Amino acid sequence: MKKRILIYETKQGNRPFAKWFKKLKDKEAQTRIRKRILNAAEGYLGDHRNLPVV
């Protein structure tokens, strides 16, 4: 099941991740990050484990 990606926005309307992502000079890193986000939206989270419930 495809998930919806939400971009965090402050009360002032700033989007810190988007701002950081645009400033990222390494285009290969941008591509890898974008691909990772799209994969997560598709349900492919890669290597991960759930945190224990406290």
Write the layout of secondary structure elements.
Elements: H1 16-23, H2 27-41
Structure in words:
The chain has one domain. The protein is extended. The chain is 43% helix and 0% strand. The protein is built from two helices and no strands. The protein has helices at 16-23, 27-41. The protein is mainly alpha-helical.
What is the rounded Rg? 14 Å
Shape: extended
| Stretches with pLDDT under 50, minimum 5 residues | none
What fraction of the residues are assigned to beta strands by DSSP?
under 5%
Q: Report helical residue fraction.
A: 40-55%
Q: What's the structural domain tally?
A: 1
State the gist of this model.
By secondary structure, the protein is mainly alpha-helical. It contains 2 helices and no strands.
List descriptors:
54 residues
